[in-house]
Amino acid sequence: MSDTPSPQRLVEGLLRLLTVEKRAADIYAGPPQKGGIGRVFGGQVLAQALQAAQASVTDGKTAHSLHAYFLRGGKEGLPIEYRIERDFDGRSFANRRVVAAQENEDGTATPILNLTASFQVQEDGLGHDDAPVPEVADPETLQSDMEMRHQMADKMGDKLSEVQRKLMLRPRPIEMRTLDKLHWMNNEPREPRAHSWFKTAAPLPDDPALHRAIITYASDYTLLGTSALPHGLSWMRGELVGASLDHAIWFHREARADEWLLYATDSPWSGSGRGFNRGRIFNRAGELVASVAQEGMMRRRKATPSA
User: Fold this and answer.
1) Average pLDDT of the residues of the chain
2) Active site residue: 234, 244, 267, 270, which one?
3) In which band, very low, low, confident or very high, does the pLDDT at 234 lie, cut at 50, 70 and 90?
4) What is the 3-state secondary structure (H, E, C) of the chain?
Protein backbone atom coordinates (compact mmCIF):
# COMPACT_ATOMS: atom_id res chain seq x y z
CA MET A 1 0.00 0.00 0.00
CA SER A 2 1.38 3.43 -0.99
CA ASP A 3 2.32 5.90 1.75
CA THR A 4 1.50 8.82 -0.56
CA PRO A 5 -1.50 10.77 0.79
CA SER A 6 -4.56 10.99 -1.44
CA PRO A 7 -5.23 14.31 -3.23
CA GLN A 8 -8.15 14.91 -0.85
CA ARG A 9 -5.94 14.42 2.22
CA LEU A 10 -3.27 16.71 0.79
CA VAL A 11 -5.82 19.48 0.22
CA GLU A 12 -7.37 18.93 3.66
CA GLY A 13 -3.87 19.44 5.06
CA LEU A 14 -3.53 22.68 3.09
CA LEU A 15 -6.87 23.91 4.45
CA ARG A 16 -5.72 23.19 8.02
CA LEU A 17 -2.43 24.96 7.32
CA LEU A 18 -4.22 28.09 6.10
CA THR A 19 -6.76 28.17 8.94
CA VAL A 20 -5.45 30.75 11.38
CA GLU A 21 -6.67 30.72 14.99
CA LYS A 22 -7.71 33.90 16.78
CA ARG A 23 -5.77 34.14 20.07
CA ALA A 24 -6.73 37.67 21.13
CA ALA A 25 -7.98 40.89 19.59
CA ASP A 26 -6.11 41.21 16.26
CA ILE A 27 -3.69 38.40 17.14
CA TYR A 28 -3.81 35.14 15.18
CA ALA A 29 -1.70 31.97 15.11
CA GLY A 30 -0.87 29.93 12.01
CA PRO A 31 -0.07 26.23 12.39
CA PRO A 32 3.21 24.72 11.13
CA GLN A 33 3.45 22.58 8.02
CA LYS A 34 3.15 18.94 9.03
CA GLY A 35 6.39 17.15 8.19
CA GLY A 36 8.04 20.40 7.14
CA ILE A 37 11.78 20.48 6.57
CA GLY A 38 14.16 23.38 7.26
CA ARG A 39 12.89 26.83 6.32
CA VAL A 40 9.19 27.72 6.14
CA PHE A 41 7.85 28.03 2.57
CA GLY A 42 7.32 31.71 1.83
CA GLY A 43 3.93 31.10 0.23
CA GLN A 44 2.69 29.63 3.53
CA VAL A 45 3.58 32.77 5.51
CA LEU A 46 2.08 35.03 2.84
CA ALA A 47 -1.17 33.07 2.74
CA GLN A 48 -1.52 32.81 6.53
CA ALA A 49 -0.83 36.54 6.92
CA LEU A 50 -3.48 37.29 4.30
CA GLN A 51 -5.93 34.97 6.07
CA ALA A 52 -5.34 36.83 9.34
CA ALA A 53 -5.88 40.18 7.63
CA GLN A 54 -9.03 38.92 5.89
CA ALA A 55 -10.43 37.65 9.21
CA SER A 56 -10.16 41.18 10.64
CA VAL A 57 -12.22 42.80 7.84
CA THR A 58 -15.85 41.93 8.44
CA ASP A 59 -17.82 44.63 6.59
CA GLY A 60 -17.92 43.02 3.15
CA LYS A 61 -14.69 44.47 1.76
CA THR A 62 -12.42 42.02 -0.09
CA ALA A 63 -8.65 42.00 -0.56
CA HIS A 64 -7.51 43.54 -3.84
CA SER A 65 -3.75 43.74 -3.18
CA LEU A 66 -0.97 42.83 -0.79
CA HIS A 67 2.65 43.89 -0.43
CA ALA A 68 5.04 41.95 1.79
CA TYR A 69 8.69 41.85 2.81
CA PHE A 70 10.40 38.68 3.97
CA LEU A 71 12.66 39.68 6.87
CA ARG A 72 14.11 36.33 7.97
CA GLY A 73 13.62 32.68 7.13
CA GLY A 74 11.04 31.08 9.43
CA LYS A 75 11.69 27.73 11.11
CA GLU A 76 9.56 24.71 10.29
CA GLY A 77 7.77 22.99 13.18
CA LEU A 78 6.93 26.19 15.07
CA PRO A 79 3.65 28.12 14.94
CA ILE A 80 3.70 31.66 13.55
CA GLU A 81 1.98 34.57 15.28
CA TYR A 82 0.28 37.27 13.21
CA ARG A 83 -0.34 40.67 14.85
CA ILE A 84 -2.61 43.09 13.00
CA GLU A 85 -2.71 46.88 12.95
CA ARG A 86 -5.91 48.47 11.62
CA ASP A 87 -4.33 51.38 9.80
CA PHE A 88 -7.44 52.49 7.94
CA ASP A 89 -11.16 51.75 7.72
CA GLY A 90 -12.99 53.88 5.18
CA ARG A 91 -16.30 53.62 3.36
CA SER A 92 -14.76 52.07 0.21
CA PHE A 93 -11.30 50.92 1.28
CA ALA A 94 -9.58 49.45 4.33
CA ASN A 95 -5.96 48.68 5.12
CA ARG A 96 -4.38 46.10 7.42
CA ARG A 97 -0.74 45.79 8.44
CA VAL A 98 0.41 42.35 9.63
CA VAL A 99 3.66 41.34 11.33
CA ALA A 100 4.45 37.62 11.35
CA ALA A 101 6.79 36.42 14.11
CA GLN A 102 8.04 33.22 15.70
CA GLU A 103 8.83 32.80 19.40
CA ASN A 104 12.42 32.14 20.48
CA GLU A 105 13.54 29.85 23.32
CA ASP A 106 13.91 32.84 25.65
CA GLY A 107 10.32 33.93 25.05
CA THR A 108 11.15 36.84 22.74
CA ALA A 109 9.58 37.03 19.27
CA THR A 110 11.49 37.39 16.00
CA PRO A 111 9.66 39.05 13.07
CA ILE A 112 9.95 37.05 9.85
CA LEU A 113 7.58 38.96 7.54
CA ASN A 114 5.56 42.13 7.37
CA LEU A 115 2.58 42.46 5.05
CA THR A 116 0.17 45.23 4.13
CA ALA A 117 -3.15 44.31 2.52
CA SER A 118 -5.73 46.64 1.00
CA PHE A 119 -9.46 45.86 0.87
CA GLN A 120 -12.27 47.37 -1.17
CA VAL A 121 -16.05 47.25 -1.40
CA GLN A 122 -16.98 45.58 -4.71
CA GLU A 123 -18.11 48.15 -7.27
CA ASP A 124 -18.53 48.64 -11.02
CA GLY A 125 -16.01 50.82 -12.79
CA LEU A 126 -14.22 51.62 -16.02
CA GLY A 127 -12.76 48.38 -17.31
CA HIS A 128 -10.20 47.14 -19.80
CA ASP A 129 -8.08 44.00 -20.06
CA ASP A 130 -4.94 44.44 -22.17
CA ALA A 131 -2.99 41.38 -21.01
CA PRO A 132 -2.87 38.92 -23.94
CA VAL A 133 -3.07 35.35 -22.68
CA PRO A 134 -0.11 33.23 -23.88
CA GLU A 135 -0.95 30.57 -26.44
CA VAL A 136 0.05 27.38 -24.65
CA ALA A 137 -0.95 23.73 -24.51
CA ASP A 138 -3.88 22.71 -22.32
CA PRO A 139 -2.96 21.26 -18.91
CA GLU A 140 -4.68 17.95 -19.71
CA THR A 141 -2.05 17.29 -22.41
CA LEU A 142 0.94 17.84 -20.09
CA GLN A 143 2.90 15.66 -17.71
CA SER A 144 2.58 16.55 -14.03
CA ASP A 145 5.49 18.26 -12.31
CA MET A 146 5.58 15.50 -9.69
CA GLU A 147 6.19 12.87 -12.37
CA MET A 148 8.97 15.07 -13.75
CA ARG A 149 10.42 15.50 -10.26
CA HIS A 150 10.62 11.73 -9.77
CA GLN A 151 12.31 11.35 -13.17
CA MET A 152 14.81 14.09 -12.32
CA ALA A 153 15.54 12.62 -8.87
CA ASP A 154 16.23 9.21 -10.47
CA LYS A 155 18.51 10.88 -13.02
CA MET A 156 20.47 12.83 -10.40
CA GLY A 157 20.87 9.82 -8.09
CA ASP A 158 23.26 10.38 -5.21
CA LYS A 159 24.01 13.93 -6.38
CA LEU A 160 20.97 14.89 -4.29
CA SER A 161 21.29 14.94 -0.52
CA GLU A 162 18.58 13.18 1.48
CA VAL A 163 17.09 16.55 2.48
CA GLN A 164 17.10 17.77 -1.15
CA ARG A 165 15.42 14.55 -2.26
CA LYS A 166 12.70 14.84 0.42
CA LEU A 167 12.00 18.46 -0.52
CA MET A 168 11.92 17.63 -4.21
CA LEU A 169 9.59 14.64 -3.87
CA ARG A 170 7.34 15.76 -0.99
CA PRO A 171 3.70 15.38 -2.12
CA ARG A 172 2.07 18.75 -2.75
CA PRO A 173 -1.56 19.86 -2.45
CA ILE A 174 -1.00 22.11 -5.49
CA GLU A 175 -0.86 20.21 -8.77
CA MET A 176 1.37 21.85 -11.38
CA ARG A 177 1.98 21.16 -15.06
CA THR A 178 4.80 23.04 -16.73
CA LEU A 179 5.19 23.86 -20.40
CA ASP A 180 8.79 25.05 -20.23
CA LYS A 181 11.93 23.83 -18.51
CA LEU A 182 12.13 25.35 -15.04
CA HIS A 183 15.50 26.03 -13.39
CA TRP A 184 15.72 22.55 -11.83
CA MET A 185 14.96 20.85 -15.17
CA ASN A 186 17.56 22.71 -17.18
CA ASN A 187 21.28 23.61 -17.05
CA GLU A 188 21.49 25.51 -20.33
CA PRO A 189 20.96 29.30 -20.33
CA ARG A 190 17.57 30.21 -21.81
CA GLU A 191 15.24 33.17 -21.93
CA PRO A 192 13.76 34.17 -18.55
CA ARG A 193 10.18 33.11 -19.22
CA ALA A 194 8.12 30.18 -17.94
CA HIS A 195 4.52 28.98 -18.10
CA SER A 196 2.87 26.61 -15.64
CA TRP A 197 -0.70 25.54 -14.97
CA PHE A 198 -1.71 25.04 -11.33
CA LYS A 199 -4.72 24.11 -9.21
CA THR A 200 -5.40 22.30 -5.96
CA ALA A 201 -5.29 18.53 -6.19
CA ALA A 202 -8.91 18.25 -4.95
CA PRO A 203 -12.00 20.51 -4.83
CA LEU A 204 -12.25 23.41 -2.36
CA PRO A 205 -15.12 24.97 -0.41
CA ASP A 206 -16.95 27.93 -1.97
CA ASP A 207 -15.07 30.59 -0.01
CA PRO A 208 -13.59 33.40 -2.17
CA ALA A 209 -11.25 34.51 0.66
CA LEU A 210 -9.82 30.99 0.87
CA HIS A 211 -9.30 30.87 -2.91
CA ARG A 212 -7.39 34.18 -2.75
CA ALA A 213 -5.20 32.78 0.04
CA ILE A 214 -4.42 29.62 -1.93
CA ILE A 215 -3.62 31.61 -5.08
CA THR A 216 -1.28 33.65 -2.88
CA TYR A 217 0.29 30.44 -1.55
CA ALA A 218 0.82 29.04 -5.06
CA SER A 219 2.16 32.33 -6.45
CA ASP A 220 5.46 31.73 -4.61
CA TYR A 221 6.11 28.57 -6.67
CA THR A 222 8.32 28.92 -9.81
CA LEU A 223 8.55 32.72 -9.55
CA LEU A 224 12.07 33.38 -8.21
CA GLY A 225 13.48 30.56 -10.35
CA THR A 226 12.56 32.49 -13.49
CA SER A 227 15.48 34.88 -12.90
CA ALA A 228 17.87 31.92 -12.76
CA LEU A 229 16.97 30.66 -16.26
CA PRO A 230 19.34 32.94 -18.27
CA HIS A 231 22.24 31.64 -16.15
CA GLY A 232 21.58 27.89 -16.43
CA LEU A 233 21.86 27.50 -12.65
CA SER A 234 19.57 25.99 -10.01
CA TRP A 235 18.97 25.93 -6.27
CA MET A 236 17.95 22.30 -6.63
CA ARG A 237 21.42 21.33 -7.85
CA GLY A 238 23.09 23.38 -5.10
CA GLU A 239 24.50 25.96 -7.53
CA LEU A 240 22.72 28.99 -6.07
CA VAL A 241 21.94 30.52 -2.70
CA GLY A 242 18.71 32.45 -2.62
CA ALA A 243 15.70 33.70 -0.71
CA SER A 244 12.62 35.77 -1.48
CA LEU A 245 12.96 39.41 -0.39
CA ASP A 246 9.51 40.77 -1.15
CA HIS A 247 6.24 39.77 -2.80
CA ALA A 248 3.30 41.73 -4.17
CA ILE A 249 -0.04 40.57 -5.59
CA TRP A 250 -2.90 42.48 -7.18
CA PHE A 251 -6.20 40.56 -7.39
CA HIS A 252 -8.12 41.67 -10.47
CA ARG A 253 -11.12 39.33 -10.43
CA GLU A 254 -12.41 36.38 -8.43
CA ALA A 255 -11.05 32.97 -9.41
CA ARG A 256 -11.22 29.42 -8.16
CA ALA A 257 -7.94 27.86 -7.06
CA ASP A 258 -9.35 24.36 -7.68
CA GLU A 259 -9.69 25.06 -11.42
CA TRP A 260 -6.69 25.28 -13.75
CA LEU A 261 -4.95 28.68 -13.70
CA LEU A 262 -2.08 29.62 -15.99
CA TYR A 263 0.95 31.24 -14.32
CA ALA A 264 3.07 33.12 -16.87
CA THR A 265 6.31 34.44 -15.35
CA ASP A 266 9.18 36.51 -16.69
CA SER A 267 12.29 38.17 -15.31
CA PRO A 268 13.32 41.43 -16.98
CA TRP A 269 16.42 41.94 -14.81
CA SER A 270 18.92 40.40 -12.41
CA GLY A 271 22.07 41.85 -10.86
CA SER A 272 23.72 42.92 -7.60
CA GLY A 273 22.88 39.53 -6.08
CA ARG A 274 19.15 39.96 -6.77
CA GLY A 275 16.66 38.77 -9.36
CA PHE A 276 13.41 40.57 -10.24
CA ASN A 277 10.42 38.53 -11.40
CA ARG A 278 6.88 39.22 -12.61
CA GLY A 279 3.89 36.94 -12.92
CA ARG A 280 0.47 37.02 -14.58
CA ILE A 281 -2.24 34.54 -13.60
CA PHE A 282 -5.02 33.74 -16.10
CA ASN A 283 -8.13 31.57 -15.88
CA ARG A 284 -9.17 29.09 -18.58
CA ALA A 285 -11.25 31.80 -20.28
CA GLY A 286 -8.05 33.82 -20.83
CA GLU A 287 -9.00 36.51 -18.33
CA LEU A 288 -6.31 38.11 -16.16
CA VAL A 289 -6.98 37.01 -12.58
CA ALA A 290 -3.98 38.45 -10.73
CA SER A 291 -0.60 40.10 -11.23
CA VAL A 292 2.46 39.26 -9.13
CA ALA A 293 5.92 40.76 -8.60
CA GLN A 294 8.82 39.52 -6.51
CA GLU A 295 12.49 40.28 -5.97
CA GLY A 296 14.79 37.73 -4.41
CA MET A 297 18.38 37.28 -3.37
CA MET A 298 20.24 35.19 -5.96
CA ARG A 299 23.91 34.40 -5.50
CA ARG A 300 26.19 31.79 -7.04
CA ARG A 301 27.17 29.32 -4.33
CA LYS A 302 30.86 29.48 -3.55
CA ALA A 303 32.75 26.23 -3.93
CA THR A 304 33.76 24.60 -0.64
CA PRO A 305 37.58 24.36 -0.41
CA SER A 306 38.78 20.77 -0.49
CA ALA A 307 40.56 19.46 2.58
Assistant:
1) 92
2) 244
3) confident
4) CCCCCCHHHHHHHHHHHCCCEEEECCEEEECCCCCCCCECCHHHHHHHHHHHHHHCCCCCCEEEEEEEEECCCCECCCCEEEEEEEEEECCCEEEEEEEEEEECCCCCEEEEEEEEEEEECCCCCCCCCCCCCCCCCCHHHCCCHHHHHHHHHHHHHHHCCHHHHHHHHCCCCEEEEECCCCHHHCCCCCCCEEEEEEEECCCCCCCHHHHHHHHHHHCCCCCHHHHHHHHCCCCCCCCEEEEEEEEEEEECCCCCCCCCEEEEEEEEEEECCEEEEEEEEECCCCCEEEEEEEEEEEEECCCCCCC
Name the catalytic one among 54, 102, 118, 220: 220
Model pLDDT, residue 197: 97
Residue 174: HSE in the Cβ half-sphere, 13 Å Cα cutoff: 23
Catalytic residue flag (residue 220) = yes
From 44, 54, 267, 294, the catalytic residue: 294
Report, as an integer, the average pLDDT of 254-264: 98
Tell me the CATH class for 7-123+142-300: mainly beta
Whether residue 307 is predicted with pLDDT greater than 50 in this model: the reply is no
Which residues, 6 or more positions from 87, have their beta carbon under 8 angstroms from its beta carbon? 95, 96, 97, 116
Q: What is the pLDDT of residue 305?
A: 55
Whether 294 sits among the annotated catalytic residues: the reply is: yes
